[in-house]
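Sorry to interrupt, but I need a hand with the structure work. Could you write out one complete protein record for me, on any chain you like? Could you add the entry underneath, on a fresh line?
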Amino acid sequence: MNIMDFNVKKLAADAGAFLSRAVQFTEEKLGQAEKTELDAHLENLLSKAECTKLWTEKIMKQTEVLLQPNPNARIEEFVYEKLDRKAPSRMNNPELLGQYMIDAGNEFGPGTAYGNALIKCGETQKRIGTADRELIQTSAINFLTPLRNFIEGDYKTITKERKLLQNKRLDLDAAKTRLKKAKVAEARAAIWAEEVTKSEQEVRITQSEFDRQAEITRLLLEGISSTHAHHLRCLNDFVEAQMTYYAQCYQYMLDLQKQLGSTQGAVFPSTFLSNNNQSSSAPVQSVSAPSVLASASASLPSVSNSVVTSGISELKSSSGSRKARVLYDYDAANSSELSLLADEVITVYSIPGMDSDWLMGERGNQKGKVPITYLELLN
């Protein structure tokens, strides 16, 4: 037998098998043929695999949207990935904003109050942009890639083996149908007994192949539990990357606010502060990344309308002292400041030449500068 004859016979056999399966499938749909049901355990495993695939795709796609909101940029990155080429490096949104601020600050003059503030804000925005790049890179490697590998690798293998299982099941049921018809014909003496024997042998063979394929499929599907465990570790890595990113951004903004606050008296005249007290903010203490996350529910103290009041103005213009209630906890940044606890009552007063946003506070024999935005003067 030459290769051509072998190929022709193989094609004929494949075509015969395809036709047999198509007939069996159609008769099942019409209720004219019996169907071998999979065992409950295998059905549960198949359902679990489909559910895992569905939600993995949704989580993966939405994570991509979170990390890169620009759909055009996502398409470009996808094309470069498929071409196995590195996408051109471009500024992200925080970096671009930061560069605009720096350029504007240099244009207005670094020696001016506004220009200096713009440059400081721009530098912070660029640092946030760098942190954003690190988050995207880390998340892509530790989270998105494993999810994509499951969809494009493991689940494709499961789908292939499941399709084979479906074909083996159709072959088995088609053989059972032929055996049933042969037995009916034998009873009517329409065929010889050897025809029934041949059909029985075909059923045994197709049953064996179906059972073997069912076992292969079952083993693959049972690996979904290991996939879940692996994806859990990847999820922890993603959360840690986000934690680091948000902690960095929080720290950068705290540092920026402190830089602006330290020169606020020079940058914003007191008359401006008096007319725009709701937009001013007090210097806050520097915190490390872990402490930021440990107190994630705490927010920066907001400035109420009582920040710049006639009472404080009178206190600053006089040499007297007043009692004040502390609104928020405050950790002293240096030895010249006084740490505060929320709801405690201290004595405050002003000294000549003091920054407009600060008062001197006393608690027993302890004293130091305190920010006025943390205080409520008592009558």
Q: What stands out?
A: The chain has eleven helices and five strands.
